[in-house]
Structures are given as C-alpha cells and as structure tokens.
C-alpha cells in the first residue's frame, strides 16, 4: 500500500521573507494579499501578525 504524503507548500516569496525579518508590516500585508488563497499556514500567520501590528486586530482574526 502506497503512503500518500502531502507536498510541502512552496517557499514564500523572498520579498515577503525580507519584509517579515525587517518587521515592515505594511509590506508583509501587501505581499500576502497578492498570494492565492488559501494561504499556507506560515504565511497566514505572518499576514495576521502584520494586520494586528498595523492596528487591525479584528481583521487579523479573519485571516
């Protein structure tokens, strides 16, 4: 019996990674908004944090 393994999501775009590392939350939110849905878990978490850091905690819960 063959075991099915879920493929790993592709790595996030370099611009998104750089923005997260630099804590440029507006850039994180913009980069995440351009990606197709559903977002991979790590990107969804970064987008939610960016939204929360930009003063929109309720919207962060929707991500």
Description:
With 63 residues, the protein is mainly α. The protein has a domain at 14-55. The chain has helices at residues 14-21, 25-33, 41-53, 57-62. Helix 2 (25-33) packs across helix 3. 21% of the residues are buried.
List keywords for this structure.
63 residues; 57% helix; mainly alpha; single chain; 4 helices
Summarize the model shown.
By secondary structure, this protein is mainly α. The protein is 57% helix and 0% strand.
Total number of β-strand segments?
0
The end-to-end span amounts to 37 Å
Kindly report the average pLDDT value: 91
Largest sheet entry: none
Shape: elongated
> Strand content of the residues, in percent?
under 5%
User: What structural category characterises the helix and strand content?
Assistant: mainly alpha
Instruction: Please report the number of helical segments.
Output: 4
- Proportion in helices: 55-70%
The poorly predicted ranges are none
Topology order in helix (H) and strand (E) letters: HHHH
Rg (C-alpha, Å): 14 Å
How would you summarize the topology of this molecule?
Elements: H1 14-21, H2 25-33, H3 41-53, H4 57-62
Helix pairs in contact: 1-2, 2-3
């Amino acid at each position: 019996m063959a075991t099915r393994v879920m493929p790993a999501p592709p790595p996030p775009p370099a611009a998104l990674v750089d923005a997260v590392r630099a804590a440029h939350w507006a850039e994180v939110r913009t980069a995440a908004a351009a990606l197709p849905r559903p977002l991979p878990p790590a990107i969804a978490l970064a987008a939610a944090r960016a939204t929360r850091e930009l003063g929109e905690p309720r919207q962060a819960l929707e991500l």
